[in-house]
Amino acid sequence: MSSPINIRNITIIAHVDHGKTTLVDALLKQSNTFSERDDPGELIMDSNPLEREKGITILAKNASITYRGIKINIIDTPGHAAFTAMRARGAKAPDIVVIVVAADDGLMPQTEEAINHAKASGAPIIIAVNKIDKEQADPDRVRNEMATKDCLLYTSDAADE
Length: 161
Hints:
The protein is an alpha/beta fold. The chain is built from five helices and five strands; from the N terminus they run βααββαβαβα.
């Protein structure tokens, strides 16, 4: 059993369809949570039949991965406006909040709400800019929009790492 010092809780929140569940899928796959024989498919966290039918996350869910001896609990929250209360609960007590922003959409209503939930939690905020491969992507616009909300956007070149 992990001691509390070796556990981190991360909440992922964003506007609907900005890539929260896809990010969680990638984390689960990269952490080797599944064996090579397992093929969990796509949208692993959206296991509810209605979620699969509608193509949106309806229920907040958690998953755990282990990284360098630290258990990381990931909470994937719904992005649709109808699920504001569930998104707010998910942001109440994490160690870190990850706000996903699609580079082709930029700051949207639930993004602003996510920022407010994250700030209320008092946890550090990470902004993950997603969908930068889309034709209409404008990561610089996202950076400027997030700066107006007092959210710093950290960027790095692979060469820096």
